[in-house]
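Protocol step 6 of 9: fold each sequence in the batch and record its structure tokens directly after the sequence line. For illustration, a two-sequence batch is reproduced in full.

Sequence one:
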Amino acid sequence: MDVVNQLVAQGQFTVIKQPLGFIKVLQWIFAIFAFSTCGSYSGIFKMSVECKNRSDSNLDIKVEFEYPFRLHQVYFDAPTCKGGNEERLFLVGDYSSSAQFFVTIGVFSFLYSMAALAVYSFILEKYRENNKGAQIDFGVTAVFAFMWLVSSCAWAKGLSDVKTATDPERVVTLIAACDEPENRCREVFEPKVSGLNTSVAFGFINLILWLGNLWFVFKETGWMAAFAGTYAPSQEKQPAPDSFGQGGYAQQDPYAGTQGGYQPDYGQQGGYNEDGGYNQGYDQQPTSYSNQM
């Protein structure tokens, strides 16, 4: 408990009140609703076959089916109306691929939403550091939005096929005894598929949530500034070599600095002396070289 209390004390749960975290909570909740309503489903329907010879009839034929809807493995025994014999019949269709795909996306969405909430609450600074975490989050969110679109559409089509394959009026046509006009076949109880209809609705609600979350994650990536044209220049412009100082106009001598050799001083006046030599005018006489005759 001490570890839990310490984590809670260090957490930044105010992010849940913001759209970025609040939508993640909704995604977490509706993902649970989506995969649970589909993955936990089991249904049953009943039929009756009334033969010309009442002793051969069966008025309570039960057919049970469940997730993942491999209906071709579901069977039931129906009377043949010939001496009390029965025949074993199987339903038609295998719709496990679309159902399992839908449930898988729901489970992974649940896990990712829970992990993202933990990151937002405890390491939000690292998430926003260099925008790397937000950019990864944006990519994963876009993938899940696309997966919810595909899985929801696939499961909606699969559910339609499941309803058709488990329609008692349609299943009755598989019984050979029902082809005889003297025998009477009818449905007694239809399967309740309201839970499966709800799972499809939750699938498209998750699609809307993940699409809407793209905008709030996109604002965290920093790409909005790039699209707006606001960017920091890579280099600052160097100042001009000439500048005006308080004492007047000063010009840099291009020959001063790193170049060696003779550096004349233009600030002092020179002249010829009596011996005909040139007086440099320096306070300290420079080293002179004379040719030896």
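Sequence two, same batch, same settings:
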Amino acid sequence: MDSIYFFGNIVVSFTVLILLCNAPSEAQLSPSFYSSTCPNALTTIRTSIRQAVSRERRMAASLIRLHFHDCFVQGCDASILLDETPSIQSEKTVFPNVNSVRGFEVIEAAKREVEKICPGVVSCADILAVAARDASAAVGGPSWNVNLGRRDSTTASGSVAKTDLPSPFSNLSTLISAFANKGLSARDMVALSGSHTIGQSQCFLFRNRIYSNGTDIDAGFASTRRRQCPSNSGDSNLAALDLVTPNSFDNNYFKNLMQRKGLLQTDQVLFSGGSTDSIVSEYSRNPRTFLSDFGNSMIKMGDIEPLTGQNGIIRRICSAIS
């Protein structure tokens, strides 16, 4: 599944202290962090990501989602990339991620290329952040200046992944709270959800919605989606999150919501008579505003609790402490 935020069961509130801790960390990140230590890092990463997306266009959505899954668990520290060991509880193997999050091999490939030119300099966490930006640009989406200087964690937390990543069945207030706990506004949440203009989702995550006969789903849309998602089989069958322009990064996702054609429950709740209706409407009318806001919100998300300075390490292999 390539959904950006639909992955857990229960949202746990963070303390205000954690949010306050973001500010000094953010100040240490800079787009020019590697300008002297590895001046060709960004070009090298971009080439690697473009090649991966060229091979499989769906990978763009997967890489954006991978960065999101990293940042919402322990901050943007590449913890999601760590494999299971006797001392590490991998985030890869828990429900929100297993058989769902993808793109690990693309990040490892980019890391190998960067290691060839600047060994031990560029963190996996930064490669994740840059890869998300380059993936967006590769499919016609916005680009932005990525703040750099993150370091990699030596730990992971499957248990936090289970609780801090919002469920695909969350209501609007739960989603708003989940993002607020990470220092992101409701507008950020709606903008980031716009990444569902690309990517795919698995049948079991939207089955209840398309068979609900609810008033919040277009009947024709539901009928179309039922063809590839039987009522009692085909759990892993995929459907595009945007039926109209599934391979283009545009604002059609928001137009779909206004026509009751959101694939996931957590898509449609953004336009269901609640506080975010006006934002959806604005983005449906103004694609430039959406693209600009998406880039700005990705920058904010990338600044969630980074490890900087002497904290963390620079992994030479993203999947292991090295």
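Proceed to step 7 once all outputs are recorded. Observation for sequence two: Strands lie at 200-202, 238-240.
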